[in-house]
Fold these 2 entries.
Entry 1:
Amino acid sequence: MKIVSIKDLTFRYVDVPVLKKVNLDIRQGDYAILTGENGSGKSTLLKVLLGELSPQQGTAEVFGKDPVRGFARIKIGYVPQNSIYRNQSFPATVEEIMMTGLYQPIWRRKFSGKMCRKQIMHALTELEMEEFSKHRIGELSGGQQQRVMLARALEGNPELLILDEPTAGMDTVSLKSLCQVLDRRNREQKLTIIIVTHGNTGDFVGAGRFLKAEEGRILEL
Amino acid sequence: MKILQYGFMQRAFLVGILLAVITPCIGITIVLKRTSMIGDALSHASLAGVALGLLLGINPVLGAGIICIIAALGIEGIRKKIPRYAEMAIAIVMSAGIGLAGVLSGFVKNGANFNSFLFGSIVSISQGELLLVCIVSVFVLVMLMLFYRELFYVGFDENAARISGVPVRRINFLFTILTALTVSIASRTVGALIVSSMLVVPVACGMQLGKSYRNTLLSAIAVALSTTVAGLFLSYYTGLKPGGTIVLLEVACFLILAAVKTVRNRFDGRK
């Protein structure tokens, strides 16, 4: 089943082409790493997939739908690039931030508080962060915060997980924990994963597809 | 207690307490979205609504409410056009509001009535205005409680909220309306020049106290309630303007809490 389908996608910032006739399919269970230099178009591609930008030409579909229209009833886990910077001063505990990962619209809300807490603690335990549930997010190190953000992205059992520069600010322990969890989820639950990174692609054990953004094109290595 | 035997003081306390509950609830989202000046823009715009209401012979609070809603929607609209300089939208609308208020106030016959909206007159609230404040406050509070999670999520990360299925545009629109309603009723009571302080300063106090988002909000409400009640008592017995007194107490509260926190952090650091 195709999770992501991109056909002849072209995107320009004013007159500067950033993505040129990109064609890419990501199937269920794919574990793809996208690398590229600054300005190569990988962040723009991510923004198109997340519905932040609309292409001038071509189409991008996620689960068969235009991402610009929103992701209601589609489970996507997303860890943004600048989450650490944003988290520093936000007055919320890890548990409160984890609650956002279990968001349901008001007319579909059926989770009891107890069940939510169980799911939250399970997700935090997977990333070895359960003892920090009552800590303020800003009290954690960068690597710990990234682990919390990943736990938040995973707790709702998403079908697609998108990570933007997940290794930025991460210590070795956190990185190892992250890679183990991603590998296990991909193998056991066929979780489709897309990671955008500048870092060492060898860290991501289990990754099966390696893509490179180069001068607006996406090449498969 | 003699102070509570007077009808005007009973109304003042009731209005003050209602506002002390809803303003931090609105304020926390405003602060976390880093749009703290929006209260200023809307309250200045509300003065244009007051002047328009007085000129047209309609309830100035209603006029303030309508103009506030238009101004709030204008801020959202301009922000979408120039997302990189979103804070300019607030400045543009504030300029338009205060300019319009300045021009229209020149045509208002009863200048004293218009001037009462600058610093408010919580002790001269009529029964009709009390009913309006009660209805609006209950409506705002119910909406904030219903959409607590959505507002938290949008305040934390608007993009991630959208990806998770939060109807961000609708939530922002609703929040804009609630902010405009709160500012318009607060302008009448504590004054257009003071409203934005009531939105922001209790939240700043709450952030010194709370370890979680919930506790920050509850602390902000507690600070707003205690300073409002203390401010009304103080203004009654000393003759000071109630709106200004309440805000000065809030600022004093913040300075004390910030100082205590600094001393405590230094002491913990030395350990």
Entry 2:
Amino acid sequence: MTTRTEFKNPLIRWVDDRLPVFTYLDHEYNQFPMPKNLNYWWNFGALASVVLVLMLVTGILLAMQYTPHVDYAFESVERIMRDVNYGWLLRYLHMNGASMFFIVVFIHLFRGMYYGSYKTPRELLWILGVVIVLLMMATSFMGYVLPWGQMSFWGATVITNLFSAIPWVGDSIVTWLWGGFSVDNPTLNRFYALHFLLPFVIFAVVALHVVAVHITGSNNPKGIDVQVPRDTVPFHPYFTAKDSVGLVAFLLFFAAVVFFDPNLFGEPDNYIKADPLQTPTHIVPEWYFLPFYAILRAVPDNFIGGWVTSWMGFTFISAKLAGVIAMFASIMVLFALPWLDRSNVRSARYRPIHNVLFWFFVFDCFVLGWVGANPAEGMFVWIGRIGTVWYFAHFLVFIPLVSMIETPRPLPASISEPVLKEKA
Amino acid sequence: MADEVQTSDADDGESSRRDFLYLATLGAGAGLGVAFAVPLIDSMNPAADVLALSSIEVDLSPIEEGQAITVKWRGKPVFIRHRTAAEIQTARADDAVDLPDPQADADRVQQPEWLIMVGVCTHLGCIPLGQKTGDPHGEFGGWFCPCHGSHYDTSGRIRKGPAPHNLTVPHYTFLGGGVVRIG
């Protein structure tokens, strides 16, 4: 914001003299220098912000038709599907939009992990990103309760019951969360209020995330700093164009799901109205929670912490509490990633061992997701435990260790260098 | 000495008075903030009408021996089972077994033929099966939770699986005339 842009239009100039929003937009989205070697994995941040806006718009329109009461919620959603003009479209966009949001954000997150985008000077940018993921999880969980189907009700029951694992005050906390003695009307009401509020909080944190990336500038596939203006191209038209290509491809995929298989990501049981006296035989969370659900269930009854504390004469850490701690820790560990990875080379392209480990980690996440979708029986118990141990070992053992012993491949002198060599 | 006069507001009464006012204001503000947080947080606890509906009366006379009914209390199912002599005997015999959550059958019932408990699995809140004819009863002839495989015995005690505690026995009173008040 050091130099002001000169605008020809007198009205724009009049506003800009008093509140330099147009200068800001010009600097940050028109002239903004981007590393010129960005690949398509850098599309996903822009895609995520498009989905967020779509969720806000469809969500507000759905809120105008929805009734947050246990006697009417299910029926009001069916009314949206059958009677409201384009209600089916609004709901299917919103419902699948949540899945799309997580697909895009998970890819964005893996991109950051692969290319070391969390490293100096982008630690705070990364932390804000993890905060966004946490807020998204809370928001989508509460949103899933609103249709008041069987999975809504029992998912809410299982997840809120997790807090009862907290020693001494657990039961009081659960009663407070419910506003009663079970998941009921007060619970539905507060989840609706929070589901309305949190997306705007997400929007605010996204704004901070974007401001932060405009301070440090984008990372790039080589993971080396921009040195000279020749290493960059302006955001417009180069990345507005590239983002548009990715956006069209993404919207094709999104539309294919919404129009051809809108219940692909859903559970048929959620089209049965919630019944507090009848548990579905197999409670599963939405797909984006499956790896975390697998970690929750991975802790055995006789695990070491419980064994030690019960040997000391009391059971402070039950298997249930340990599972809950493990599940929350699986996200919290992401906050520490910038400090766990001690290598000063960002991109995994130049880190042979780290590169292999990364793909093992991606594979592990898929395995945990598969385990989470299945009943905790037989081989799934063991696969889930091994997958969970690998998950934490990846962050707490492999990454720190490899970052200290690995010899990285030589880095190019600049972003432009390899390109110029090819030309010559 | 002249220097000390010039820098006096750093260490004499004037500055400590200012510090005190500053800390007192901050403390009062923080205290009021906490005090105001109490009603805000407490507003999310169960309201008076929710609490008012927290007890029910159930007529037990139509329930034959070996039958069970489920009633809704505080939004949760309550299992009421008219136990057979055989079930009572098994439950008492199992008092001596190594139980995950040790409790004698006599401590779980007021009248041995009436087993009354909250039908919510103590693991993650599912409803165990075993109330209806044809339901599985688990390995110990009581209830079985299909969610994560917890087995409860004829006294509703946890015997196998991830649940940490026995099925909860609510507070209840026999009012006479075959009527019980739960809550």
